[in-house]
Amino acid sequence: MGLFTMESTKHQSCIDACNRCAEECYKCFHACLNEPDLNARKNCVSMLVECAMMCQMSVSMMSMKGQYSMEHCSLCAKICDSCAKECNMFNDDHCQDCAQACKTCADECRKMSSM
């Protein structure tokens, strides 16, 4: 997979959490589109895409050691918290799995933003 430096490995747990969160958000998005109460999930579905995109951008920022990585991760944590809150409103397994991935990502992003 290439060479890892100490700099890249210290961000690896956050990168991994962001990748997992984006994956879970997209899975949940697809599953929610097929739920009978889709209309009640409008805000959640929108938040899922926003969260996934933010997580993907955070991965890119950390990977390139961007100047604003810490600030970006701080905002990513806020968005992940909001997404987890939305997903927790629904009892489906896909929403609960996504909420957990979002919480984990938010925690990792907060750690990253305080480095």
From TrEMBL:
Pfam families: Csp (PF03860). It comes from the Bacteria. This is Ferredoxin. It comes from Anaeromicropila herbilytica.
